[in-house]
Amino acid sequence: MSGRFAPRPVTRTTVRGGDTAVPHQSTRTPLPAPAGLTRTWTPPGPLDLALALGPLRRGPGDPTFRTTPDGAFWRTSRTPAGPGTLRIAARAGAVEATAWGDGADWLLDALPPLLGSLDDPSAFEPRHRVVAETWRRRPGLRLGRTGLVLESLIASVLEQKVTTDEAYRAWRLLIRKYGDPAPGPVDGRMYVVPSARTWSLIPSWEWHRAGVDSKRSATVLRAVRVARRLEEASAMPLEAASARLQLIPGIGPWTAAETLQRSNGAPDAVSVGDYHLPSTVGYALAGDRHADDAAMLELLAPYAGQRHRAARLILLSGRTPPRRAPRMTPGNIAAL
């Protein structure tokens, strides 16, 4: 998708919605589906919606994110104005979005940054052939920002030191049980992340049932107690925002980077401490599949200020090291 940037006034029209079905796990009354609000936005250049929005999806069964056969992307959020559902679709060189719920206006106002309007790809200069080739093939890569810290932070905490399958399962179970039914014309399978207070009231045995050990659940509980202070990080420079998040025991450089990549669209937030990223970067740039964090940072040094973008392009290149060692195995929190 391409087009000249031309900010347009918000155009709102009524969209018919349906009621949300009540899931069998909950007896809560679903939120009514009010009229939807719409906005059409023309991006300033090429835009690939899947690349911009893909990092926000936590596995194929994520209750807060889905795609539909018509090519639309659906996402729920708990905004400062309340819960909301956002539908985004490409239409004739522009982006058409519809939002429902108390957070509808907030989501529509945040649409351009979500799709990378604040991202500056012109600041990026490829230094390696594999990066340059992927950059050429992926001109629509934009680093979007949600402006919401807590939702990305909690999901990232759940991904600490476990397999992606374990983390996605925990996210799915907890959101379905404690989240709110999504507003708008959804079919009962989408939910809005719980409020900070609701996260704080989840009993220990429910964390255990979801496969979340006490260390990670304790980190979430510490974070939600200072949720307002953490949300302030969305408007901070990367270094200050990372420092703010890491004041919470249990949140280190990896969790902070994974959060700020999404909440702030931070192009230099490198996921130091990742299980696979160092070897992937090392193999793609130097043929070293045994690279550690120090080696990865040295290889990414020419991309200072844009290291996360460079890492995204390397991951998108498909140039990954051969698997000669066992993959990370699922843990057993019952033994802890």
- Categorize the overall geometry: globular
CATH superfamily (homologous) name of the domain at 149-263 = Hypothetical protein, domain 2
| Biggest β-sheet strands, sense, barrel | 5 strands, antiparallel
Low-confidence stretches: 1-27
Mind telling me the C-alpha Rg?
20 Å
Q: Briefly, what CATH class of the domain at 149-263?
A: Mainly Alpha
Order of strands across the main sheet: 1-5-4-3-2
Helix content: 25-40%
Write down the CATH topology of the domain at 149-263: Endonuclease III, domain 1
Strand content bin: 5-15%
Mean pLDDT: 90
InterPro entries: Alkylbase_DNA_Glycosylase/TA, DNA_glycosylase
GO biological process, one term: base-excision repair, AP site formation
Keywords: DNA damage, DNA repair
GO molecular function, one term: alkylated DNA binding
